[in-house]
Design brief:
The complex is a heterodimer.
Chain A: E1 3-7, E2 13-16, E3 32-34, H1 37-44, H2 54-66, E4 71-73, H3 77-94, H4 108-111, H5 124-129, E5 137-139
Antiparallel strand pairs in A: 1-2, 1-3, 4-5
Chain B: E1 6-10, H1 15-31, E2 35-39, H2 44-52, H3 54-60, E3 69-72, E4 78-80, H4 86-94
Parallel strand pairs in B: 1-2
Antiparallel strand pairs in B: 1-3, 3-4
Bound molecules: iron/sulfur cluster (SF4) and zinc ion (ZN).
The site of iron/sulfur cluster (SF4) has 12 residues of chain A, from loops.
């Protein structure tokens, strides 16, 4: 099981098999110490903005795609809009921003794999035609 | 409930499903078929039915339960994905 880690310099929190070698926030090296849920939740606090509107969903997708050398967002704006509405519907009715083009199994652990963006590079559609299942993320030309 | 339907499992906010709708409706008209449309994100009963056919649908979708997915209750055959053509649909419907 993944563990919680805390940067002892700036209190960055990380969930993973090990802490990052270099803290992404403060740059300290070998700075992560084992943490626990209560400590991590205390650090995280409660005042983070919710991703609750289609615009906010799309902004997160863009941030993700813009930093990626291999994928971009589709140019079909109406589809982006429709999908953003879908993931929000799913958040409101099923709890998370799940993919509008697949369905949950009811097994919460398994369904984590359906939160958008999912790990679409392992999908058949991505391997064969360079698109995530819904056509939201597209492989960049020449990659 | 009849058990020999041609079923289209779709999602209201799935772009491929939206594109496929006129293709399906034309196919029904041209061939005198009825394809029952069941929405799976906003209707849990439909989702349950889709899960009950997972054995056929999952491999057709490439490993997960996705939409658009078509299930033929007579033949047990499923086809799935955003690039389904009218020809493939007809073949699926005719068994
Ligand atoms: S298939 Fe595409 S739209 Fe669906 S969850 Fe994955 S990345 Fe998001
Ligand atoms: Zn730090």
């Amino acid at each position: 099981m993944k563990k919680l880690w805390r940067c002892h310099v700036c209190n960055d929190v990380h969930l993973g098999n090990k802490g990052p070698e270099v803290c992404p926030t403060c740059g300290a090296r070998n700075a992560f110490v084992l943490s626990d849920r209560a400590e991590a939740l205390e650090i995280i606090g409660e005042d983070h903005p919710v991703i609750g509107t289609p615009q906010e969903v799309v902004a997160a997708w863009r941030q993700f795609a813009d930093q990626s050398p291999t994928v971009r967002l589709t140019e079909k704006d109406e589809e982006v809009e429709l999908l953003s509405q879908g993931v929000l519907e799913n958040r409101n009715t099923k709890g998370q921003r799940y993919c509008p083009c697949r369905i949950t199994s009811g097994d919460l652990r398994k369904d984590l794999g359906l939160i958008c963006p999912c790990n679409f590079t392992r999908q058949r559609t991505y391997r064969e035609i360079g698109e995530c299942w819904c056509g939201l993320f597209i492989k960049r030309d020449g990659t | 409930m009849s058990e020999n339907r041609l079923i289209w499992f779709h999602g209201r906010e799935c772009p491929h499903c939206r594109q496929l709708r006129p293709v399906v409706e034309r196919l029904e008209k041209d061939n005198g078929l009825t394809i029952t449309q069941l929405e799976v994100w906003h209707d849990e009963e439909n989702a349950e039915l889709m899960r009950s056919y997972a054995q056929a649908i999952t491999p057709a979708c490439g490993g997960e339960l996705g939409v658009p997915a078509f299930y033929n209750e007579v033949t047990g055959k499923a086809i799935c994905g955003g690039r389904i053509t009218a020809e493939q649909l007809l073949e699926w419907a005719k068994g």
